[in-house]
Amino acid sequence: MEFSLIDRIRQRTAQSRDDVRLGIGDDAALLAVPKGQELAVAIDTMVEGVHFPRDTAAVDIGWKALAVNLSDLAAMGATPAWALLALTLPNADEAFIDGFADGFAQLARMYRLALVGGDTTRGALTISVAVYGFVPPGKALMRAGAQVGDVVMVTGTLGDAAGGLQLLQQGHRSDALSSYLIERLNRPTPRVAAGLALRERAHACIDISDGLLADLGHICSASKVGAEIEAAWLPRSSALLGLFDDASSRDVALSGGDDYELCFTVPPQHVASVQADLAKLGCGATRIGCIVERKGVKVRGANGQWLEQDRQGWDHFRA
Ligand code: ADP
Ligand code: MG
Prior knowledge:
The protein has 319 residues and is an alpha+beta fold. It has helices at 3-12, 58-76, 94-110, 160-169, 176-186, 192-198, 212-223, 238-243, 246-255, 271-280; strands at residues 20-22, 30-31, 38-47, 79-89, 114-122, 126-135, 151-155, 204-207, 226-230, 262-266, 285-292, 296-300. The strands form three sheets. It has a six-stranded mixed β-sheet with strand order 8-10-7-11-9-12. A four-stranded mixed β-sheet has the order 3-6-4-5, with helices on one face. The structure holds adenosine-5'-diphosphate and magnesium ion. Adenosine-5'-diphosphate (ADP) binds at residues 1, 6, 9, 24-27, 85, 87, 115, 117-120.
């Protein structure tokens, strides 16, 4: 690819780190993993029209491409360090590249994350970001590990991104509540500090990309347990409650994707300290249910009856 495009990306995302021996510009980057740390590695791909609406601003695409990956590191309790970026573009659009790189860099700077290389090719707009982070051996948070009697908790609020997507699909919205939800869709906040804070206390953790029911289901399968959720306890933003009725806001909180909050389980004795620490970090943590022996995820409605689960979150391969 044209050197000028890669150079624009390099300049706009510049971040020096001692552990980057060689960054963008050679055939491969050379990186030094700190002594006594394990490497946590993840990659996620975003395709225009599938993972973000076609008219999403370049700066938001750049932010989100990195955010969804940092969210995976957050869910492992890892500290972000480096990233690779594979960009497929329909044309060498400098304005798009600049906006994309700026959005990527805004988030990268918050974590002193260095973009150390990548690839640039022509084709339908597709972005793959790989991230690398550090975690002390044996300390990573995993999906497996939830125990019967654990409390199920989530950071932040649920359903905002799915609510924002519904608003976008209904047409242009610019009021404050709508803008808040659309911002939650376009600029998710990876809960990196929360993931680090949970390292010594959570038994299991996952980030919510496909919806609470689907992702908590992954914790349950990996841990060979089940979960019971109280619908009335689901944390919902005032914007979501202001624009959607109770049943629809509950449905998107249960099954809507793209929130990138953390769902985790902690033994009851750690609930109060986790709530206090995550409140200090700004995202907060809400108790939403408990881990039980009986497999599957069940949701109790406000009237005490079990809800029927006909929507299990977003599945890319569903017919
Ligand atoms: P090669 O032919 O060796 O793969 P490239 O021309 O693809 O070389 O890349 C040249 C340098 O620019 C490499 O160091 C590569 O990692 C980096 N690079 C290419 N595309 C990107 C990108 N989109 N973001 C960051 N670095 C990139
Ligand atoms: Mg290449």
